[in-house]
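Risk register update: the risk of archive-format incompatibility is retired. Evidence:
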Amino acid sequence: MDRGADPTGPGRGPSGSGTAGEDRLPAAVRVSDILQVGDAHVSSVADAGPMTWRRACLLALVLIVVCLPPSARAAIPEPVPSADETAPVATGGDSADDPAIWVHPTDPARSLVIANNKRGALESYDLDGNRVQRITDPEVTFWGNVDVRQGVTIGGVVQDVVAVYHRGLQLYRVDPATMLMTRINEGTAIASAGEGLCLYDSPSGRVYAVLIAISGQLRQFEIRDVDGDGLLDGTLVRQFAVGSEAEGCVADDDTGALYVSEENVALWEYDAEPTGGATRTAVDTIGAGDLVNDLEGVTLVDLPDGGGYVIVSVQNAADPNNSYFVAYDRLTHAQVRTFRVGVGTESDDCDRTDGITALYGDLGPSYPSGLFVCQDNNNDAPGSVGNQNLKYVPLQDVVDLGDEPPPPVGISHVATSVVNANALAWSRTVPATVQPGDGMLLSFSRSASTDALTGPGSGWTQVAHLADGSLETTHWQRVATVADAGSPVRLSYPSGYRKGVLSLSVYRGTRASVPFASAAGAVEPGTTAAHRTPTVTVPAGGAWRVSYWADRNSLAAGWTPPPGEQVRALSAGSGGGRIGVLVTDPGEPVPAGTTGGLVATSASASDKATSWTILLLP
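Archived output:
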């Protein structure tokens, strides 16, 4: 039974029987309506003369409600039962705090909930609530908030990142085989005060961490791999004061919004880009609707159609043991639901909740549409009893997920064209079949030069560049727009003819923000006809690999592609210093794990070559 509910039902007496008419309470009532006798209004109960007991009781009830503070007048939250819970944290008191979800790349049922124990550890749990790992630091016991981003590109490498506040910003990677986290900071933690934390994967291809000190000071860092050793560091790119105590935050990678809960004021939306300054808009404010202080965790439900929800935890409700959550439309910020996580058959409710997280997607048989996780202050029966823990709820029980989305179409090759010439300028025409949202890869291998290269124009972003002696290769990417079909793409030098090969490849179903997530290149260390592409990590299923080879030689021209590859472009060139290029892909997604290491054989040996493995994400 929901706490505070009348067990006899609305308008029913102790016996459970009810009558029509005056026994039923109106849906809405004014005090002046109750204190009305005939056509005259009265100012007190005594003036009302003979008043029915029902009218007197109703008057008392209305006066009580009118005099209540906003926190007590908030809408009654809809109860949603918990489905499961994690093992309790190892320390007592206010310990469990902020969760995040890491999705296993090949087996969603093996995904993890990663959370902090403020009094001693970074912990991970499986989807049955069993503890998988506990990372401690005997010298400094405080651990702050946690966030996860998967499939982000840092230093040209696609990877998953777990971030937590501990002595500053600490970064970890999860091994899908062992399910264990390993620290990947370059040296010590990225220095900053903080407790609140969230990550942002920008459409610019940069990855940021936002840290919020309990005083409300916000600092934003760009996460980088400066020396290419796989260890990550951070550079401060923005800081400002929220205004007062704050902690919870979440970034929307698609819309570029950063949501911050200023605990006793409002849920704010900022620009997540470091150039956004401190300008903000209130999603909702304390006392205006169902929000009361203090506000804590914030999370985002990202639906595949671009819709979704922003959810905030209202921790200090009038009855703290009945704390609740408010959900807003992701795009309009209209309030859509107020709910609380109640007692389930296997686990109890979430009380005085601090951190929350949500993820839409297949997480296996128990959570086929996603998962909502909330911290529980009072860990009671049923289930474990004692120290704080986290509660699990199927996401479809919390918010409306709409109709099941159609299965993803996946990535497909649209077209590739190539031109090989000894010239001042090279151009390709974007195919007429290109559609808005397609990913376009422009690759240019040429005789090395110190002259300035002009092109390819606005909208193109350089992915990578590599030189091997007198041969250099550059790749650019662009997300197609409605104006691109049939348009020319041109590169040129101011003077001096040189050999060059320009190829344009188009793929459909790629990630909308950064279609080509990484491009790993290698130069040829010796003289050989067999050129091998680098090996890269594939973080999740559905990714495609494009392989690219270029060499410069003066002998026979031509290429033998690796077996099983679809040849998208092959150009041999002619004359002395000719440049040959080969572009292939497998014609289908590559499995999670590693890919690359493919060998293409040129018709003659050369010590000037660049070989590439380029990763496309859906």
